[in-house]
Amino acid sequence: MKNKNILITGGLGFIGSHIANKLIEENNITIIDNLSTGKITYLNNPNHENLTLIKKNLKSIDLNDDLRGIDYVFHLAAMVSVPISIEDPISCNFENVSTTVNLLDACVKNDVEKIVFSSSAAVYGDNRNIPLKETELPSPTSPYGASKACCELYLKSFHESYGLNYTALRYFNVFGPKQDKNSPYAAVIPNFVNMILENKQPVIYGDGEQTRDFVYVGDVANANIKACESDFNGIVNIAGGSQISINQLYGIVKKTLRTDIEPKYLPERIGDIKHSQADICNLDYINLKIDNDKFQENLIKTINWFKQIK
Ligand SMILES: NC(=O)c1ccc[n+]([C@@H]2O[C@H](COP(=O)([O-])OP(=O)(O)OC[C@H]3O[C@@H](n4cnc5c(N)ncnc54)[C@H](O)[C@@H]3O)[C@@H](O)[C@H]2O)c1
Prior knowledge:
- The protein contains nine helices and 13 strands.
- The chain has about 300 residues and is of the alpha/beta class.
- It has a domain of about 210 residues: NAD(P)-binding Rossmann-like Domain (Rossmann fold, 3-Layer(aba) Sandwich), CATH 3.40.50.720.
- The protein has a seven-stranded parallel β-sheet with strand order 3-2-1-4-5-6-11, with helices on both faces. It has a two-stranded parallel ribbon with strand order 7-10.
- The radius of gyration is 19 Å and the shape is globular.
- The site of nicotinamide-adenine-dinucleotide has 26 residues, from helix 1, strand 2, strand 5 and strand 7.
């Protein structure tokens, strides 16, 4: 992708900043971000001449001016927390669904060529029919999952009604440098690493035999770019396509950090799913291969990043 005008909503966040850093040398990048969780320091060069940074809340702006001349949109800004969405479903609907419909409307009015939407495996909810295929009926168990499913339907309807091209990417468990480690809802890898670096005992809920399907943030950024370049309209799971148990994961983190700290086991949390694994055949539609053999290497890169910001 070269010489394109690109808008990234949430471009200062964990995943969005990786996309921005990959594209900025050869494209003009506009980022809209309210800095609620994102950080300017996540960009390799916040003063890059190809960057326009609009520090605003996506929900409070008329987007027509910002979308003028834009070729492609990567839409990542959202309420990203499942527990917060359960506490405040009305805000979740507003921040995730209404803002997306507003953005889609502005895309149509400004002849945007394609939008790539960050969806989530939360759309599948507690569906146990693994490996999960994109054709399964959505079965979300949280307002967050429902909001993502709803956005996917809006994307399809805008494609049918107005010809707006789209790909929705359902991310499974993303990990990598820049993932938030301080949030009370921190994901499992930053949580393990952070606790061990602070000489504390990480918590595992349940027996630790629950499995997850992890995907490295660099692959997720590539997936966004490949999806944008493809002519595929529809939904694609973004995952490694394999399962690793939380106990296995802890073992690798423990070995890499050369620690003897054992995890503390607490009762399973209500709503936690037992197993998760994606069917990744649709990756072919966007011409992407994810190399699972690099899981350990990517985990080490991630651990080193957490050590360095400590
Ligand atoms: N990280 C994961 O494992 C994961 C998994 C599934 C789906 N997703 C989805 O991927 C997207 C990016 O997630 P992330 O992990 O990078 O999260 P993040 O919190 O790091 O990034 C979100 C970014 O959006 C910005 N933002 C939030 N609300 C905004 C608003 N109203 N206006 C303007 N900016 C706003 C934040 O400041 C932040 O920079 C989200 O849509 C999320 O739902 C992430």
